[in-house]
Design goal:
- The structure holds 2 protein chains of 2 kinds.
- By secondary structure, chain A is α/β, with parallel strands linked by helices.
- Helices cover about 40% and strands about 15% of the residues of chain A.
- Chain A folds into 3 domains: about 170 residues, Aconitase, domain 3 (2-Layer Sandwich); about 110 residues; about 130 residues, Aconitase, domain 3.
- Chain A is built from 16 helices and 14 strands.
- In chain A, strand 10, helix 12 and strand 11 form a beta-alpha-beta unit.
- In chain A, helix 8 crosses helix 11, helix 9 packs across helix 15 and helix 12 crosses helix 14.
- Chain B has one domain: 3-Layer(bba) Sandwich (Glucose Oxidase, domain 1), CATH 3.50.30.10.
- In chain B, helix 1 runs parallel beside helix 2.
- Chain B is globular, with a radius of gyration of 13 Å.
- The two termini of chain B are about 20 Å apart.
- In chain B, about 50% of the residues are buried.
- Classes of the chains: A alpha/beta, B alpha/beta.
- The interface between A and B is large, with 46 and 40 residues.
């Protein structure tokens, strides 16, 4: 412990900072770390209301005069502060959720309220940077796609790291733990069309999470230089079905220019094939709807990027969303401002799309007919929405979702799947 | 690992797969709500939950703290691998509410030897015994 660490712990910097440092010390015990390291940034997920305990915690920090000591971004909260009229749940929960968001902002954190802070150029950490991030998809993206280093800092510990600027030197902060121990190879029966389809990535992510658990896996068999949007979809799904904090995609992620480098020049512990049948089974499992019809289409989980918003607008191509279907896209307020300036938001709204910021449609009541069936292109949304908001889900590709929103019924394109 | 102030005696609830408490447990009732989980509908409240690993969301710490506040939390959680998220959730709940939910790591073979429903005793030193 440094002398500042001891000061933090003994209350020299206030009771809030002392509480935060106790959590960091507890984290060091659990991870068996021998020392602490500095982090340059934090991304805090604790600002989402999960009941009064989350407010009891933040009031303890507020009363203790806590402030963040490193540049800090905030994850989604329970309400869209810019479009509060969209909230359809219990008004008391909205009030408590809003209060929690305000409290975190008051610690000096930037009110980004997005689960995709990596889309913001001025807060994106660079290769090798040591940071403390919360939110499972952001953690996976940070490690895997940016090559910055974070462990899975869950609620409470994320803000504790932001306040103290310290984390245990353990896990993915260390080079060795970033080595792939599992190789997942796409089998020969996976069609080329599917290997280059958007719809593959969330499905492959669910399969990866199941097989990897908490291990670091390397995916082999995809074309090089996959887009950040696809890697986002893969990581978000993998972090839903497993405790995945890092993955490699050979040829696409920065620590895996080759499989051998992802393995850090050692032999893998496991090599497993992913066959077409497994991918089809995961795809089918993500759709829980048995009834006909389509109530809503929910896109933008994790938050839609600028390029995704442009693609959705282009796929609509001037057509309107069917009058019986609610089409909702979640994005971050900063990305929305940029997309507004470029005219993309205007095109989407003219087509009848609703835009939501600061929150997401599977954590808070936003949909008019949430019971569904709700169609989504997100493996993460499909995974969590049935439990969280009671939705029945139809999973599909981004293009299937947009075409279905226009048609007012589920439209399928089975070609990438080999017809079935 | 897990520290408990007092001895805990409760029945084991052995989960076939890891459970993410966020999206997986309703803290107002203690019920498993993850539709993909084989034990959907089971109640965690007051049980010593035995599972291979915590899983998924980094918000599970909040759900555990909220469950402690609401009185729906498990009595303890036993895992085959250490879980930072659940351990921190338990630490915060203990600071805020004075209730300890020990999160204890056991060797996989010892964990696998615990039958569902078995009466367990967790000592003040964190030791786990079948009664």
């Amino acid at each position: 412990m440094s002398s500042r660490d001891r000061e933090l712990l003994d209350g020299t910097h206030g009771d809030g900072a002392a509480f935060a440092m106790r959590l960091v010390v507890r984290a060091a015990e659990v991870t068996r770390a021998r020392q602490f390291i500095d982090v340059t940034r934090a991304h805090v997920d604790s600002c989402l209301y999960h009941g009064e305990a989350t407010l009891d915690f933040v009031e303890r920090l507020t009363d203790g005069h806590a402030r963040v000591s490193v540049p800090t971004t905030l994850n989604v909260g329970a309400v869209d502060l810019l479009h509060p009229e969209l909230f359809r749940g219990d008004p008391r929960v909205a009030d408590r959720g809003r209060l929690l968001m305000d409290r975190y902002r008051a610690f000096g954190a930037r009110p980004t309220f997005t689960c995709a802070p990596y889309q913001l150029a001025d807060v994106r950490p660079s290769l090798g940077e040591q940071v403390a991030w919360g939110e499972s998809n952001a953690i996976a993206f940070c490690n895997s796609v940016l090559g910055a280093r974070t462990n899975r800092y869950g609620d409470f510990l994320d803000i504790a790291a932001a306040i103290t600027g310290r984390v245990p030197e353990a896990g993915l902060h260390l080079t060795e733990a970033r080595r792939a121990t599992l190789v997942l190879r796409l089998a020969d029966d996976v069609p080329n069309a599917l290997r280059d389809a958007d719809v593959l990535f969330p499905v492959l992510g669910i399969a990866l999470g199941r097989r990897a658990g908490a291990a670091v896996a390397a995916v082999d068999g995809l074309a090089a230089k996959q887009s950040e949007d696809r890697l986002k979809a893969l990581g978000a799904a993998a972090a839903s079905s497993g405790s995945v904090a890092m993955f490699h995609v050979v040829g696409s992620t920065p620590e895996a220019p080759t499989l051998d480098e992802a393995l850090q020049h050692r032999a893998p512990e496991r090599v497993e094939l992913i066959r077409l049948a497994e991918l089809r089974a995961v795809r089918d499992e993500l759709s829980t709807a048995s009834e006909e019809g389509l109530a809503a289409v929910s896109l933008g989980t994790p938050h839609a990027s600028l390029s995704e918003l442009e693609r959705y607008a282009a796929m609509l191509g001037g057509r309107r969303v069917h009058r019986d279907v609610e089409c909702l896209i979640s994005t971050g307020r900063d990305v929305m401002a940029e997309a507004s300036a470029q005219g993309t938001i205007g095109r989407l709204r003219e087509a009848g799309v609703e835009l939501v910021v600061d929150t997401c449609s599977y954590i808070t009541p936003l949909l008019r007919k949430a019971a569904g069936p709700v169609m989504t292109d997100s493996g993460k949304w499909a995974y969590y929405a049935p439990g969280n908001i009671g939705a029945t889900v139809v999973f599909g590709s981004p293009a299937e979702c947009i075409h279905s929103a226009v048609a007012g019924r589920v439209v399928r394109d089975m070609r990438p799947w080999g017809g079935a | 690992m897990g520290r408990s102030m007092t001895e805990i005696r409760a029945r084991a609830l052995v989960l076939d797969e890891g459970l993410s408490l966020w999206g997986g447990m309703d803290p107002s009732s203690g019920e498993i709500i993850d539709v993909h989980h084989p034990q959907l509908g089971a109640f965690l409240t007051g049980r010593i939950v035995v599972m291979p690993s915590g899983r998924g969301s980094s918000s599970s710490a909040s759900v555990l703290a909220e469950a402690v506040r609401a009185g729906t939390a498990p009595a303890a959680i036993l895992l085959a691998e250490s879980d930072l998220i659940l351990s921190i959730g338990a630490t915060v709940a203990e600071e805020l509410y004075g209730v300890a939910v020990p999160v204890i790591e056991l060797p996989p073979d010892e964990l696998a030897a615990i039958p569902d429903g078995a009466p367990l005793r967790i000592g003040t030193d964190g030791s786990v015994r079948q009664e």
